[in-house]
Amino acid sequence: MSALAIAPTFLSDFTRLTPDVQLDTLAVMRACQAGDDPDLEAVAGAADPRVRVVSIAPDWTGVVVPDPDGEGRGEPGEDRPTDGTHYRLITVRPRDEALRFARGLRPEVLESPGAGAVDPTPTGPPELADALAAPFDQWQITLHPDQHRITEARFKGSAQITGGPGTGKTVIALHRAAHLAEHDAAARPGDPREAVLLTTYNRALALSLSERLDQLLPDPGVRARVRVATIDSLARSVVQSHSSVAPRMVGRDELAQRWRAVALADGLPFSGRFLVDEWEQVILAKGLELLPQYIRCERSGRVQHLAPEHRRQVWETVRRYVGAMRVEGLWSYPQLAAEAARVLGRGAPLFRHVVVDEAQDLHPSQWRMLRAAVPEGPDDLFVVGDPHQRVSDNRVSLASLGINVRGRGHRLRTSYRITQEILDWSMPILGRRAALGMDDNADTLAGYRSLLRGPAPVVRGCDDRAEELAALGDRVRAWLEAGVEPAEIAVAGRNHWVVRGIAKELEARGIPTAPLEDGGDAAAVRVGTMHRLKGQEFRCVALVGVSDHLLPPKAAIEAADGDQVALEQAFQQERTLLFVASTRARDALYVSHVGRASRLITDNW
Question: Has residue 269 been placed in a domain?
Answer without folding.
Answer: yes
